[in-house]
Design a protein that fits this description.
The protein is α+β, with helices and mostly antiparallel strands. The chain has two helices and six strands; from the N terminus they run βββαβββα. It binds zinc ion (ZN).
């Protein structure tokens, strides 16, 4: 998660770019003048990145929510070898979380490769969505900054502000 906190310090305006990195809140002060000079360039860059991410999303034709896991299960027959073993029979399954509950479904052996690919597509899809959200937050920050900058410059034209 990223968020931005505008802040004024001794006549010089700074923006603090705060974000979580490895669950630790990190802050970076961004000097406003540097931002101003690169504002348009930055917005254009974000726009290009966004377009690339959107075309990546459009390439996705199939995906499945969840992850592939190897698991072991006892069959329940008391005369089976697994009754004495810790793990039991190997089974292949896909597991996912829905409404806060973890769920799983057994899948046939011949579908392992397919399921791995499909869940991989899903993971990639989610990653792209996260990046899109970050870009949008960044763009919003820049636009907010430009708004504030233009208003201040305009107000400076009149003494009564
Ligand atoms: Zn068994």
């Amino acid at each position: 998660m990223q968020f931005y906190v505008p802040c004024t310090q001794v006549e010089q305006k700074y923006y603090y770019h705060s974000y979580y990195e490895n669950n630790k809140l990190t802050s970076v002060a961004i000097y406003s003048i540097m931002l101003h000079m690169s504002t348009l360039k930055e917005l254009k860059k974000l726009e290009n990145k966004r377009a690339r991410l959107l075309s990546e999303l459009q390439k996705t034709e199939s995906m499945i929510r969840g992850t592939y896991v190897d698991a072991y299960r006892k069959c329940g027959k008391f005369n089976c070898w697994c009754a004495k073993e810790k793990k039991g029979h190997p089974i292949h399954q896909i597991s996912w979380t829905k409404d806060g509950k973890s769920r799983s479904k057994a899948i046939p052996k011949e579908d392992i490769v397919w399921v791995k690919k499909m869940t991989g597509n899903y993971k990639k899809w989610r990653g792209i969505r996260t990046n899109l959200r970050k870009l949008e937050e960044e763009a919003r920050f820049i636009i907010n900054w430009v708004e504030e900058d233009i208003i201040q410059k305009t107000e400076n034209l009149r003494k009564y502000f």
